């Protein structure tokens, strides 16, 4: 009889152990005034694993994390993997109701949290979820001191838990831009496969100094293994502003970072953007929401061909398609609206509403299958069956492939506007509007209209020091009319100082749309 483990692939715990064991005194983490070597991260992880197991948190347990950026977040991510616990990061900017919903939906056993920021918040969550165990990074009024518990143990050699590739490794939530967030159950196989594709395809600098400008609880899970495999180090910001970003890049000669588009817009609009701060930067990974082609062109002209785009979603994260640095080619400006070429390590097809593949160049729903795909939506069998219909994961994104094999995201299927019987994709209009010199950000939604059913509405954030006026409004409407036709031109435009964002940094189109479907339309122009 063949041993069941004979053909089992390495999974996330194995990859973490191998990476952490590669070096001893090499720096692994810089955060504030704190520096931790590979050995120190390894030993802190070992002690936390033992503390979790002592608290009966092991294989099959589910832990949520809520913390500001601090070193222990990284150690705990590794400790959860090596104890067999499934992790569920909570965004630090999320609301009490959002956090309670996520923890109840995921059936979380314990909350690991930062008591300097979230002590009272954690206590309120426990009031709503009485069986919840609280573990705090340090002294707390309400939780067990996780760090003190860990200090009761001596470091031992790291070992992988007894888990299978199909067991649940992480529990995340969809963005919630089209309804209540769904609980995504991802397996050890999926998380390991994502890391393997990153290592195979992504353009990491040979000297990897990786700046983490987003919550460490989210970013480290995505970049932990690739950074370790490169012998790199994390440089973690404790809060993002353009000034602190540029300061850290210059001080530490940062070679790579990951940003969502809105963060890039803030950097581009900073007075310091044109100063010589970015000379060390070799790769800026970006994704999570669509990037304005015009603003991307602006960034390339300013800082060079250092941009690397990734595309995925919670149900199949980050690596479904990627656009490499040299593919951000200003000689082919149309490509700046693409998200790259589909990865060869997953099956991807564009399907029509009958489940048939569409001809090259025609729009169809992006559907994928392969080891990266989630196991299911927890406790949502109907939604799981729907999203897995015909043997594919249906992403809900409408895309098209050009003759060179580049994938373009046309829009979300649920964001499509039907006006006067015509189908209008907001993403295409947003890209045109972002090409105007006055525009920093744009969101386009459909709003109620007695004549057309829905009318096209644009919500605009202007660049600093500009004020809305009728001239800008007319220019924007005419710009879209010339580029896409009168059906696509916004019937009205609103101007805001900022756009609402989801906790994961995406423009919250659902929140914008709700203003107009729940209130009287208050458009300008």
Number of helices: 15
Please identify which CATH superfamily of the largest domain we are dealing with: ANL, N-terminal domain
In the predicted model, the low-confidence regions spanning at least 5 consecutive residues are 519-525
CATH topology of the largest domain: Rossmann fold
Describe this structure in words.
By secondary structure, the protein is an alpha/beta fold. The chain folds into three domains: about 40-185, Rossmann fold, CATH 3.40.50; about 240-415, Rossmann fold, CATH 3.40.50; about 415-520, ANL, C-terminal domain (GMP Synthetase, Chain A, domain 3). Helices cover about 30% and strands about 25% of the residues. It contains 15 helices and 26 strands. The strands form six sheets. The chain has a nine-stranded mixed β-sheet, sandwiched between helices. Strands 4-3-5-6-7 form a five-stranded parallel β-sheet, sandwiched between helices. A four-stranded antiparallel β-sheet has the order 17-18-20-21. Helix 1 crosses helix 8 (about 215-230), helix 7 (about 190-200) crosses helix 8 and helix 13 (about 425-435) packs across helix 14 (about 470-485). The longest helix is centred in the first third of the chain and has 17 residues, at about 40-55. The protein is globular and about 70 Å long. The termini are far apart.
